[in-house]
Design goal:
Elements lengths: L5 E5 L4 H5 L1 H9 L4 E5 L11 H15 L3 E4 L11 H14 L3 E5 L6 H16 L16 E5 L9 E4 L4 H9 L12 H4 L1 H19 L6 E5 L18
Helix pairs in contact: 3-6, 4-5
The structure holds zinc ion.
Length: about 240
Amino acid sequence: METIDILTVAAHPDDIELTCSGTLMKMLDSGYSVGILDLTQGEMGTRGTPEIRAKEAEAARAVIGARFRERLNFGDSRLTASIENRFALAEKIRTARPKTVILPYWEGRHPDHYTAATLGYEACYAAGLKQLPIPGEPHRPKKILYASMYWEVRPSFVVDVSPYFERKIRAINCFASQFAGDLRDITELYPAWGKLIDQITTQCKYFGHLIGVNYAEPFVLKELMAVEDIVTMPVSSL
Ligand SMILES: [Zn+2]
């Protein structure tokens, strides 16, 4: 693992692709480096072998352009914010030394998702403690963003990902590689997959339209956002 500017931490391979991959592509184009950390291997997914899932995750990483993707083995559908997991993740954070960390939103249907938010936050904090009995130089990221994809959660801000949306869908579709045939036919052959793509498309459109663009990804902050210049603020009021 190498040092990067932005580290995304999520419960399952494909979470990143669904929530914030467009933003990652945009930041990569701005010259920032990106790393992906999946806390579990997604072994509770109904389809595919571990080998197929590893291949899919790597293919999606390549589409996004992230520098590395590491999959930890904290246990799909049994993820806990234990001290052991916190220290193991804190060690990764000390190695990657990100300035910004993206975590899943802190509420959700799947316990792994909100647990990843808690565990991620606690690991970011712990990584900065000098006396912590783990290897590596202390490091604490400056910013933690929570990636959300819920209608009812009001984002703190959204990122225009219009030029990247097609590639985002391509990254998501990497996780359907075990389906036979042409990727373009997936949504017709597998209605559940089609529904997922439709949902993500609709949500990105919804958040995009709120700022007058085609597609956007929403993020939530726990702290308030500060503005330095009230003249050049984006998104017009009228
Ligand atoms: Zn997930």
